[in-house]
Predict the 3D structure of the following.
Amino acid sequence: MQFDDDAGLDTSEVRDERGSRLPGGRAAMGGGIVGVIALVLGLIFGVGPEQLGLSSDGPETAASASSAAQVQQSCRTGRDANSRDDCRTVAVVNSVQDYWRQEFERRGGTYGAARTVLFSDRVGTACGSASSAVGPFYCPGDRRVYLDLGFFEELRTTFGAGGGPFAQAYVVAHEYGHHVQNQTGTLSRSQDGRQGADSNAVKVELQADCYAGVWAHHATSTPDESTGRPLITELTRADIRDGMDAASAVGDDRIQEKFQGRVTPESWTHGSAAQRGAWFSTGYSTGDMDRCDTFG
């Protein structure tokens, strides 16, 4: 995956809270869905919100004003995105949101942007106080994506994904798929409390995988609003394989087999490895969000 070296990056879409401390350590639960790791750990190990780092009581607190703010200082151009993980995240966020903004407009709608928050250790959100152990997640309460960049190493070493820049891009695009669902009204369908291979929770996750593929289909043709040229200049077959591999690595069956030694489809919340890879592939091959109807 290559970015236009001369393209400017919009760092206003990413808030850098790495190095910030969360006073008090608790926040009010705001509902919504958390990321792959939190749900799967809760499913497999039977842990509750406290163990996962999501507190359910106490006043909401915010991160301190002190912030590393490395993104704003260091991520200026596509050249930076080609050499740094944090700048790559900024560029992917820019590209994903450029695409959905233009797609919503093409369909006669208005896309509401969502910021990504980079954090380390712990962060306060409208959905609760989250630790890095939760993994990447989207909080509909404040319409933000939360990401500890250390997850990308976990994706490779713990979950067996091949890694690579586009595996990271897939994770970001998947979370923004949830933001799209929040705006189209499908995200709430996952909150009926059901689990299982045919549950709405699984269908919501697979649709987000499909939406990530739709963005990937258009990534090298979506013009950047500042330059009129695509921010992403190249996606190879190997990049797409990395994305599909990352999607499959966090399939419920693969994680259950790894951590509990057996597969229990009745407790799935995200879908199997085959399903996740297949729905990403559907989005990528068609480039059409209408083909992402996992409910139909």
